Amino acid sequence: xxxxxxxxxxxxxxxxxxxxxxxxxxxxxxxxxxxxxxxxxxxxxxxxxxxxxxxxxxxxxxxxxxxxxxxxxxxxxxxxxxxxxxxxxxxxxxxxxxxxxxxxxxxxxxxxxxxxxxxxxxxxxxxxxxxxxxxxxxxxxxxxxxxxxxxxxxxxxxxxxxxxxxxxxxxxxxxxxxxxxxxxxxxxxxxxxxxxxxxxxxxxxxxxxxxxxxxxxxxxxxxxxxxxxxxxxxxxxxxxxxxxxxxxxx
Amino acid sequence: xxxxxxxxxxxxxxxxxxxxxxxxxxxxxxxxxxxxxxxxxxxxxxxxxxxxxxxxxxxxxxxxxxxxxxxxxxxxxxxxxxxxxxxxxxxxxxxxxxxxxxxxxxxxxxxxxxxxxxxxxxxxxxxxxxxxxxxxxxxxxxxxxxxxxxxxxxxxxxxxxxxxxxxxxxxxxxxxxxxxxxxxxxxxxxxxxxxxxxxxxxxxxxxxxxxxxxxxxxxxxxxxxxxxxxxxxxxxxxxxxxxxxxxxxx
DNA sequence: CGAACAGTTGAATTCATTCAAATAAAGTGG
DNA sequence: CCACTTTATTTGAATGAATTCAACTGTTCG
Lengths: 250, 250
Description:
Two copies of one chain form a homodimer.
Chain A: E1 5-7, H1 19-22, H2 29-38, E2 39-45, E3 50-52, E4 60-66, E5 69-74, E6 80-86, E7 91-92, E8 105-108, E9 112-118, H3 119-128, H4 130-156, H5 159-176, E10 183-185, H6 190-197, H7 201-213, E11 217-220, E12 223-226, H8 229-236, H9 244-249
Antiparallel strand pairs in A: 1-2, 2-9, 3-8, 4-7, 4-9, 5-6, 5-8, 10-12, 11-12
The first copy, chain A, binds a DNA duplex (30 and 30 nucleotides) through residues 158-159, 189-191, 199-206, 208-209, 221.
């Protein structure tokens, strides 16, 4: 079913450097031991390999430990669209809970490590550890909010604005994980960016060139530097959160 | 906080005609009694009144008993977009779980009745009734899938296709609730439709006129008849599920 | 009845797409 | 390691779908 290679966990969730994403805070030692037991195995994915495909029966949800994945939905007529890009600490496979089958394909954009969380056992444990249940609900709900922001972008913004929003969102998420946030490698192709943003790759390319020309960014292949954050935030139509402190000081 | 009018429940969830949506199947009598206790009150909304606003602290989620509501998100710069239209049996307010504040506005499109479900008590009860917890997770997950389909529509379809998909989706949801599904009243304005579909109202109007001209629909104000279902499904790029049986027979 | 609002239709404009071609990078096999 | 194919990306020019601007019609409501 999966074109993947299974590992047994070499290190536990309780020592996972990404624990702040995977696990709720304020949980006891014995709780953690139980949660560790949930993650029976881990998968190592090569670039292009799929974690699951739409229609596969839901057995697990997944937590990204290292790497980047995309999820995409497809239409009956063969057209398909990238719905999300996923970074370490994010949970995948949640769209399979609704009717027991994943509704999307999840594909690695680079070599990645993913923890497998048996869903039935997880639901059982969540019942016993209230804070885990709450955290799970929060994760599902935030996922909703994410998608709704994406809807707003596709429905109301011009290509240029969508791209700016996308770059800034990516930057913020990298920052939250302790990665460099003003200079990084785009793990997705222009085709995948365009698909995610609802625009053609030629437009993606043109907009990136335009951003570079205006001094907002520097881009060389998939390596990007965000130069003028204020300019980007202005383009995206949102206030620059990095300046929150300064604003409050005024 | 809410510009609403509170009622005490005159009839219980256990006798709610919409129970198949509100409540999981396969639940015991005593479970039902407990669930009844969750719904402490009900709100009656006039057209245009809001059930909650973004930023309001989450205390409850809501189940629509009668009527239609829209949810919308807004951008910092004032632009806003309709994210969803909601029919009886659907749960609202789920986007507030993530960080304790609703992320959207929910506004009645017509006179509506909504059940208030205290969220904390609900989470507690869900822990005690596994099937209720499971049902809740399914609802959240389906919500995700819904939004992702919407994303696909905004990102990959032309205006005409989006409108066809929208009309068919509405029709299916009405059918699932036992309403007339080939002839009904649109509860939303052209502006709201356009906002939801990511197109201008002039385009909505033009496309509707075009559909009528081609004999796909009949429309007079907000009253619509779907005439040529096959044609609409073809436009939407999806197979007509009403013909599933016939296809299987071939 | 008249004002305000909602919806339709036409014409001009624009943003993004499509088509086409060039360039750059990555992979392949000798 | 190099020539060569394949894939990814960029850029230009022509086209097109949807928007914007504008005018008009139909509804609703005080």
